[in-house]
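== Polypeptide entry ==
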Amino acid sequence: MRIASNTVSDNILNQLQKLGTNQANLQTQIATGLRISKPEDDPAAFGRAVNFQSEQRRIAQYTTNASTALAVSQASYEGLKTLKGVSDRAGEIATLGAGVLGQDAANSYATEVNQLIEQALQTANNAYNGNYLYAGTAVGAPPFTAARDAAGNVTSVTNGGDTGTAAIALSENSTIVPGTSSDTNTGIGDFITRLIGLRDALKSGNTAAVSATQTGLTNSEDLVISSMAYAGGIQTRIEAAQNQLAGRTTTLVGLISDNSSTDITTSVVKLSQASTAYEAALSSASKIMKLSLLDYLN
């Protein structure tokens, strides 16, 4: 009879332990909002949630990449826009200088062009976040170096950049080059050289030489405009990628929630049921244990 009593007691205690554990788990789920907090709670769901979180981290990196790429493209575009303004004014001066001018007026225009040269050179050596924009992949140093005469005027420029391009990943199978092309970077140097030619032609009073600079200046402006259009297209692509990444992030948040979060209403109902079952089991256990004790004493 003692063996039977012990067996009954063990079964009752095991049942109470299971009910108590279930009750505690439900209380934790309600308190944290999580249905699973460790692998054994639901191995399959836990594995899916881990995979989704890993993908979420990858998307976060792509999102950072996209923001960086957009900033680089926008900075490059702003520099090109400045060069376009310089080109517009240089074209006007070249047209005026090709006409009948006095030397004083020509010298005044030459002085203005000299300032345009300095502005173009400064823009050509623009940097974003410490990286020079028009240097290819040689971003650690200013790409354009100027030689100057005794008066400090720029007489020539040398492009020390390279022809490389840096691609940035926007997704698992998509990259983009946010910077300018090597042709654009070379063209910027050519533009400054043409500005120098315009200044010198004005200073010499040679209207034919001034007129001869117009074709080159027009070609430079066409290149700048084309590069601006390309940069605008790059920005559109990046913004589209950002929207896609944001959509993927939203989807993953939902999937992670579906696999790991608990339905509070359902959990509260289950907790109520578990509490009732636990109290009933305690009551039954108390009665059975009393009977078992009496049987043992008898």
Notes: DSSP finds six helices and six strands in the chain.
